[in-house]
Model the fold of this input.
Amino acid sequence: MHRTHVFAHTRVRAAVAAALLAPLAACSSGGSPTASDPKPARSADDRPVQVTVIPTGLRVPPGKPVTVTAAGGSLTSVTVTAAGGGRLTGEVAADGGSWVSHRNAAPGTAYTVAATTRTAAGTTRTTRSSFTTAEAGKVNKVDWRPGSGATVGVAQPISLVFDNPVRNRAEVEKQLKVTTSNGTEGSWGWIRDWSGRDRVDWRPRTYWKPGTEVTLHAELNGIDSGPDGGWFVRDYTTTFTTGTRQIVKVDLDTHRLTLVRDGRTVRRIPVSGGTPGGDKRSWRGTAVLMAKEGTINMNSETVGLGDAYDKMVDYSMRLTWSGMYAHAAPWNAAWFGRANHSSGCIGMSDADAAWFYAQVRPGDPFEITGEDTKGVVEPGNGFGAWNLSWPEWREKSAL
Done:
């Protein structure tokens, strides 16, 4: 009897314990996860945005824009930074799905890309990547005029001469941005420089207004010149101002040079131009004062005139690459105001040359007339673009 009593109590306690544990086990299935439970799945609206950057890798070909695209969300901003600190700017598309740089990736440059994205649920995240571009196999360099900070005459063009040929002219011209303080109308024109190299000049439709402030931004870094030309690996900038409106009128038939300033005749000077009837004749048309070179050695052999002269010449003012100057020519005094008897230059007395040299500046136009001349100054022989009509000049643009 005693053993039976103990066994009965044991069975009762077990049944009670089972009854108490049963509801606890049932409730645990709907409660918070324990350490051993898997994490809850991320909602579809808050999954990470997939970002793709092109190009990617090492030594990738330069000369193409950087593109960034987003899938499963949107881009909010993109920053592309070069190792030297410069940036490639761009804009995020209206739908937030893509970003494209305004300019191409330059040769031999390491870039870091930081793309900030937003999920549909509003979570933002920044991802970073990097790439490098291959070095340029060949580099094209530029010689430009006028120099930055200069004050120039009203006929001065912007002129870029390239070391190597430029076949991708339209692509290059798109990167040449000219701004002026008064909205001056002008155009680029591609010509052959006297040196034989490719050249592009920007001239206004008419002479500059005095006081015009001009800036050129040649954003060429990362542009391919085309076959045999090589890559541009830097940008170029120049800023200059136009000065007083001065026009030099040279009449080779009356043998007079007249300086006109702001529409008023300042002084008339007797001169002697190039000897008629042969290679010693002067050029006609509009030449532009290229440089004031002071006292220089002039040797006729350098301009294909044999041994006609070899002397030091004072107050030399260059008008063409082919060797036409205005300068002092005291040895020719008997002909000033009477006849053309030089080897192609415009000569005057020492006193007149000293005064005139002090008055003019590079960029002043020399409007030369006369019956017996070599012909009109070519666009590439100095700054001869003014000898083309405005429609003719615009035709020389690649755009």
Summary: Residues 92 and 316 are 56 Å apart (CA to CA). The longest strand covers residues 124-133.
